[in-house]
Design brief:
The chain is α/β, with parallel strands linked by helices. It contains twelve helices and ten strands. The termini are far apart.
Length: 327
């Protein structure tokens, strides 16, 4: 039986409205089942550490399990695309990090547009990267390391958790501005062999996200030569900023949560309020601060603007440094 056009449109409009109401009703019950937080790097690195901290908090606060699923590879692109292609219901989240801003330019072709194809949920924190050397490297300062690298051309290697990652870009910017010959060894995340090679002396230096290296620094296994932010870190007050020796050098990493485009606003609001509550909680705040974190927080739109600004910044650095793009 064929329906008159007017009646068909009326029914279609009603179905769409009902679908929107159903999504809204489901959002009010959020979360009613476990929530997945995708991490684009192996367990043990900085992104993983932050994801597990915020996941534990959200599990306790919202009464459903928030679990981390590590999907390493392609400098976070595998995990990012997994979030973007997921059902937009808030049950698959991404632990957003600097690669999401860097990859927008660093990769010549991506299967997605991060700013357009995802919804910002909440910013968690930003941290310095830290320039660390293994115990066998005979340097105690940035100038000493520069002299050591120049005296040993072809023999000094840096570890990075993938091309286009914040540690990789920090290293390349350091090479560019200090004119030192360093060679990249890429790992599937810093926890995927980089730390072991740093400890053994196979790799000499890394510009790691601070949360990943802080334990090794405190244990005396790594020596911190400098932080990448323009000012010193409160968690490592005796470690100078690299910019004290190389004026204009500045990099910071950041962490937050994003969801697939079209995730219901009430769901994003629940998550955003819960993350902001974590940043206001003295115990959680101290946990993040102990990792070198400077809190972000704020509404979803503010985090979206932050990611856009970081994307623009790295686009300029990549173009001005003539860094070869990934296909």
């Amino acid at each position: 039986m064929r329906l008159p056009r007017r009646k068909f449109l009326h029914l279609a409009t009603g179905a769409a409205a009902l679908s929107a109401v159903s999504r809204g009703a489901l959002a009010l019950d959020y979360p009613s089942r476990p929530v997945k937080i995708l991490v684009g790097f192996p367990a043990g690195g900085a992104v993983d550490v932050v994801a597990r901290l915020i996941g534990d908090w959200l599990s306790q606060r919202l009464g459903s399990q928030f679990f981390v699923e590590n999907r390493p590879g392609a400098a976070n692109n595998i995990a990012t695309e997994g979030m973007i292609r997921s059902t937009p219901d808030g049950y698959t989240l991404l632990l957003t990090n600097p690669t999401n801003a860097i990859n927008a330019t660093f990769y010549a072709r991506l299967n997605y547009d991060f700013l357009h194809d995802s919804d910002p949920v909440a910013g968690i924190m930003r941290v310095p990267n830290v320039m660390v050397v293994g115990a066998a490297v005979p340097t105690n300062s940035v100038p000493e390391f520069i002299a050591y690298a120049k005296a040993n051309p072809g023999k000094v290697y840096y570890a990075s958790p993938g091309n286009g990652t914040s540690p990789h870009m920090s290293s390349e910017l350091f090479k560019l501005m200090s004119h030192v010959p360093l060679f990249n060894i890429t790992y599937r995340g810093m926890g995927g062999g980089a730390y072991a090679d740093m400890l053994s002396g196979r790799v000499q230096v890394a510009f790691d996200n601070l949360p990943g290296s802080i334990g090794y620094i405190r244990a005396g296994q790594f020596r911190a030569l400098g932080v990448t932010t323009a000012v010193r870190s409160e968690v490592l007050p005796d470690v100078p900023s690299i910019s004290e020796f190389i004026p204009g050098y500045e990099v910071s990493a950041f962490y937050g949560l994003n969801a697939a485009k079209g995730t219901p606003a009430p769901t994003i609001e629940i998550l955003n309020k819960s993350v902001n509550a974590a940043l206001a909680d003295p115990t959680m705040r101290k946990k993040f601060a102990d990792l070198g974190g400077m809190m972000l927080g704020g509404p979803p739109a503010e985090f979206g603007k932050f990611i856009a600004a970081e994307t623009d910044k790295w686009a300029k650095v990549i173009h001005e440094s003539n860094i070869a793009l990934m296909e």
